[in-house]
# Entry
Amino acid sequence: MSGLRSYLIIVLTLIVAMVVSILPFPHWYVVGRPLWLPLVGTYWCLASPRRMGIVTSWFAGFCFDAVRASPLGEHALALSVIAYVIQRYHLQIRTLHIGQQMLALTGIFLLYEFLIFWINGIISKPGPILLYGIPIFVSVGLWPPVSSGLRFIRRRYRVH
# Structure
């Protein structure tokens, strides 16, 4: 039962991240909207790599594509690629100080936004490059409180 409960907690936090990502907000917020799904997915890939991996990230991205009506597979590809990178280096990233983690996550979120920008360029839907860069820094700045909150949830519900 513990395994099922762990998956349920992870899925619920991913759903909350998707909901917060699609809520309507004022324009000033939308420009710097944090990358909630990659933030939460990154935390679970680091904290519980056996439960949150490439396949789970791909599925979450696929659901996010369906919810946002974006090109099917756009976020699925980007999330699965960053999940691969995080799983490859999760032991090294976990041992870093929070400031060093933020620096490493800047590169990971940059990769995520580059993949989204690249896919949008292929389908002739590119946007201003600045709009892809602002959420990276907002998300990295939110890493300490997000990781602390999710760590509390992980310990409270014993997600391993």
